[in-house]
Structures are given as structure tokens and as C-alpha cells.
Design brief:
There is one protein chain. With 273 residues, this protein is mainly beta. It has a domain of 145 residues: Jelly Rolls (Sandwich). Helix content is 0%, strand content 45%. The strands form 5 sheets. Strands 8, 9, 12, 14, 15, 17, 19 and 20 form an 8-stranded antiparallel beta sheet that branches. Strands 10, 11, 13, 16 and 18 form a 5-stranded antiparallel beta sheet that branches. The radius of gyration is 30 Å and the shape is elongated.
């Protein structure tokens, strides 16, 4: 028959050896002040900690590994005091929502098991962007080449909203033209639909929808260096394998007069699904 007993300790309980447990270890703190520190070094078994104090803290040292859900009808406070900053997580709901009540510094990637976006609540979005800090050019080359300065690394599959603004011109003669697509990089594009409008060669310009990432948006004549043409892009793209995605551009017709993509050209991807 199992031994059932209760031990009340009114002072300090020092445990200098490991707690070996093949079942459950239940520890309750009823004091209104002070700290309860528990370390489990056993390779099996569970430790359940119940804190009934409204003023004290439960500190778990050194590591708390939870392989199941944490059921909580009160509050869970986790504080990490390290040299790189503090992490404070508070759970105030019994339905299991975690609330970060202070700043969380992340030095790696946050993995979401499901989609982090909902249309009925305010949620953060994954926003990615790239822009040119200096002009780049294509001379005597009508073959599409990736503009690596505009590369974006995508770490999540899903649907992204595309946006951006490309500014361009020709060195001295605009008859070389220019062309763009989104066929560079290692990410796998499952679907894309994007369009563009702007000002090209001294006149407004609107382009029809493009539905392939390696189909080029082309302009036969563009303004020369003193004037910048531009197009603003918008669309949706579905990524089903992560990697880089890079815009490409080239002259429409190969000539010795360079076609330039200007500094401050940029594009963005925002995950929406």
C-alpha cells in the first residue's frame, strides 16, 4: 500500500541531491513572501508546481523544459535575466494566450507552426524589403540578369503582397529600352500576378497584368540621364519553397548606351496568408 503523508516546512528546505521521480512531484507554496526554487535533474517523471502566493515568486533553475501544454488558471511569469537582456512572458488567460509584456529581443528566426495572420485581430506581419543605394547599369546586354542588390530572402512559404518603385533611364540614348521580371533567386514561385503604372519616356504608362515571374515587363524607349522614368508595381505572389527572390533587368535591345536602374529603387514583400 502506498504511503500517504503531508510535510509542513516552516523554514528553509535545502535539497542537496537530485530528486528522482517516477511519478509526479507536487510542491505547493502558500507563503505570501519569499521565493521557492526547485531543480529537477531526474531524466523521467513530472514536476508540478503550484504557487498560491500573491507576492512570492517561483524560480525554476536552470532549465524548464515543457513537452506538454502548461495548464494555468492564474498567471505564469517567466523572467530571464541574461547578459543579452530580459525576457518576460505573462499568461493572463486560461485559454492559453501568451502575452509579452515587455521587449523581446530575437537573435534568430521565429517559427510559427500555423499562419500568424488573421483578418479579425491586429497582428504583426512579416515585412521584407530591399533597395538600391547606388545606380546600377546594363550595357550591350539584352539578357536578363539578377540585380543582387535587390535580393530578398524568404523564410516562410505562403502568399505575399508585392509592392515597389523602380526608377530608371538611359545613359545617352533611350532606344535601348529596358525590361524587368522577377525570375531570379532560389525560391519557388507557385503563382504570381502583378502590374505596373508610372511615367515612361515623357508620358503616363500603365501595363497589363503579368502572370509569370519570368515574363518581362518591357519598355522600348526610355528617358536619358537628366530625367528619371519610374514604374510602381503591385501584385500577389505565392511561394511554396523558401529561398531568395531577386528582380532581374536588362536592356530591351542590346546597345552601347547603358540602361540604368537608379538609386532608391526598391521593392517589398508582406506576408498576408
Amino acid at each position: 500500500m502506498a504511503n500517504l503523508f503531508s510535510t509542513n516546512i516552516n523554514s528553509i528546505l535545502n535539497v542537496t541531491q537530485d530528486i528522482a521521480n517516477t511519478g509526479n512531484c507536487l510542491v505547493t507554496q502558500n507563503t505570501a513572501a519569499g521565493n521557492l526554487i526547485i531543480t529537477q535533474n531526474a531524466s523521467f517523471g513530472n514536476i508540478s508546481i503550484i504557487q498560491n502566493s500573491t507576492f512570492g515568486n517561483v524560480n525554476i533553475t536552470p532549465t524548464f523544459n515543457a513537452s506538454w501544454n502548461i495548464a494555468n488558471t492564474g498567471n505564469i511569469l517567466i523572467t530571464q535575466n541574461t547578459a543579452t537582456g530580459n525576457l518576460s512572458i505573462t499568461q493572463n488567460l486560461t485559454v492559453g494566450n501568451g502575452i509579452i509584456s515587455s521587449v523581446m529581443n530575437v537573435y534568430g528566426i521565429i517559427d510559427a507552426n500555423g499562419s500568424p495572420t488573421k483578418n479579425l485581430v491586429t497582428t504583426p506581419f512579416t515585412g521584407l524589403s530591399a533597395f538600391l543605394t547606388a545606380n546600377t547599369g546594363r550595357t550591350s546586354n539584352a539578357t536578363m540578369n539578377a540585380e543582387n542588390n535587390l535580393a530578398i530572402t524568404i523564410n516562410e512559404t505562403g502568399v505575399y503582397l508585392m509592392g515597389g518603385n523602380f526608377e530608371f533611364n538611359a545613359k545617352s540614348n533611350g532606344f535601348s529600352g529596358i525590361q524587368f521580371d522577377f525570375g531570379g533567386g532560389t525560391a519557388k514561385v507557385n503563382a504570381i500576378a502583378w502590374g505596373a503604372s508610372g511615367w515612361v519616356n515623357g508620358a503616363p504608362n500603365t501595363q497589363p497584368l503579368i502572370t509569370a515571374n519570368n515574363t518581362a515587363l518591357q519598355f522600348s524607349n526610355i528617358d536619358v540621364t537628366a530625367t528619371r522614368d519610374f514604374i510602381s508595381i503591385v501584385g500577389l505572389i505565392t511561394i511554396n519553397a523558401t529561398g531568395t527572390l531577386i528582380p532581374r533587368y536588362a536592356q530591351k535591345v542590346s546597345t552601347a548606351n547603358a540602361a540604368n536602374l537608379a538609386a532608391n529603387s526598391f521593392w517589398t514583400l508582406t506576408k498576408i496568408g
